[in-house]
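Deliverable D5.2: sample structural annotation.
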Amino acid sequence: MTTTIKVSDELRDRLKVQAARDGVTLGAHLAHLADSDDRRWRLSRLKEAIERSSAEDRESHAIETAEWERAELSRAS
């Protein structure tokens, strides 16, 4: 299904140029932009959650992450 969205001629032209530059359809380009914004939003929520974490929890996470990275590296060699 397709639909029409109202945007200025200038914005439409910008989007078409961007899509053509990347070799995709305008619909695919808009989907990519929506996906990118969804990702940006999720990461900003994650950042906020991390900032609300206690210093003790952040330190615990850092220690556990380092342990997992060492385990992965030791198995790789």
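Annotation notes: Residues 26-52 form the longest helix (27 residues). The chain has one domain: 9-76.
The annotation will be released with the project's public dataset once the embargo ends.
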